[in-house]
Amino acid sequence: MADLPLHDQGDFADADRGFIAKLSPAVVRTADGRVVWDGDSYDFLQEDCPETAHPGLWRQSRLCARQGLYEVTSGVYQVRGLDLSNMTLVEGDRGVVVIDPLISTECAAAALKLYRAHRGDRPVTGVIYTHTHVDHFGGVRGVTDGGVPILAPAGFLEHAASERVYAGHAMTRRAVYLYGRALPRSPEGQIGCGLGMTASTGTVSLIPPTLDLTRTGQEETVDGIRMIFQLTPGAQAPAEMNLLLPDRRALCLAENATHNQHNLLSLRGAVVRDARAWARYLTEAVSLFAGRADVAFASHHWPTWGGEAIVRFLEQQRDMYAYLHDQTLRLINKGLTGPEIAEALHMPPQLEQAWHTHGYHGAVSHNVKAVYQRYLGWFDGNPAHLWEHPPRESAIRYVECLGGAAGVVAFARRYIDENDLRFAAQLLNHAVFADEGNKEARDLLAEVYTRLGHGAENATWRNFYLMGALELADGIVPATMDVTSPDLLAALSVEQIFDSIAIRVDGPRAWHERLAIDWHLTDLGERHRTTLCNGVLVQQRNPGDDAADLTLRLTKEQLVGLLAGKGVEGVEREGNTAVLQRLVAVLDRPVPDFAIVTA
Ligand SMILES: [Zn+2]
């Protein structure tokens, strides 16, 4: 375990600074009574750190579990701890502008109500989405019905919608592990995710932005509030921006600099992020904004006050990402592979002495592999790894070579005794993948995962290990989250809608199908053709005049309805309507609760 700067208690003072009021009880429900947020379930974090948690993570969770309304500076407030993210409220001439309205409309409404109870019934006069992740826009209908300026970085809508189009179902399943959704909240169970406690589970909404920010240095005024923007695409999110409130001397850092090491690649799966760009944006933030802010706040965690402290914080965050990037590439060019670099690379001690460089959400170990992945991909160059058997087939053979399952379990016990839990997990994983009915191996692996989880500094590692242990003991936890949000579906572009159909085509079933459908989007004035051939659904805009098998005239809303499984009533059809059924017949369904810790 790295030395922890336990003497440094400054974060506790900053996390409490400006406190006005709590939400009590800290429970948010839907209209029909379902609990979507329960902050009080984390009250146990007030106890001393138990044996079942890493002291650094326990400390971080204790800070993240604080909840309520806080004054950041005159006219700038935050509601923290009522969802994974923070809602920031900036008071203008007529009302209040909301920066990042949380994940769920229910939590956003509760946060606004708490603010209004102490600051008066100010109308919401504008909204800012700092970036494309759902914890920064999903609650918007909890604060406004629209009709106000909504500002977002260029590319926001496309990327906000696209994350769910392609690998969304797999990400949703893995997010159950990432957040430890099925774990009890207890000293032995879920104690947060580093960035916050967990994600709320209410109604996700989206109102499209009315104004895209397109360049760094752009200035806008909403409700008398001046804002200067810095665009930071391709770092923490594909579209993101920082902003300065010059008249408040306050700097919003979105999610580009928070009080932990962030992910270059989320363990739930994502397109890998660019550490080099991330570091450069932080350098740019210092040069643009140093001396112009007395407080810096983000959409997670607590603010940092004081001009010097802000610059130190930004430079340390910058150096952390730059070090990860540059040192990984240095070692790559000496021939080291991802797992080798992950073992060899350590943060400089002076950076480790800053709490906010610690890996509570991201981690040096998996971030290094993300840098490797970005530049070199999955293959490490070793031909032995080019054509390995898949996990279950490998496992069966390893178990046979090790003298059968009993032998593997015996070896595993030896490594457990030597406290080499990592190798014990590898061995027992083979035993379980070879025969998932092997209860002894399952139980022992669950025990090993539990111990690895309890020792982890990183909250998402802890959650993955403990979820693995839970599913080994109890079986797969069925998916309960409904991932479809009508607003998010409506935000899809026509191209994204056809993409989402194309990735559901069951290739082999469609090998011998051949059909063409023209889609005339009457409200958009667009013509698209989808052609199914060779097991591939190809889309083309403005097709030629040759006849398709079927022509449909419909609105985008009707197209979204078709995608959501509604029928074709009201859709004008011309040609062979049977081809639509033939297309639907070759569409596959995602599996929402696939196995992870068993074969
Ligand atoms: Zn976030």
TrEMBL record:
Q: Which GO terms describe its biological process?
A: dodecyl sulfate metabolic process
Q: Which UniProt keywords apply?
A: Hydrolase, Metal-binding, Zinc
- A Pfam family recorded for this sequence: Lactamase_B
- Which superkingdom is the protein from? Bacteria
Against InterPro entries, the record matches this protein to: Alkyl/aryl-sulf_dimr_sf, Alkyl_sulf_C, Alkyl_sulf_dimr, Bact_Alkyl/Aryl-Sulfatase, Bds1/SdsA1_MBL-fold, Metallo-B-lactamas, RibonucZ/Hydroxyglut_hydro, SCP2_sterol-bd_dom_sf
The Swiss-Prot or TrEMBL record describes its family as follows: Belongs to the metallo-beta-lactamase superfamily. Type III sulfatase family.
The molecule here is called MBL fold metallo-hydrolase
Query: What is the scientific name of the source organism?
Result: Nonomuraea deserti
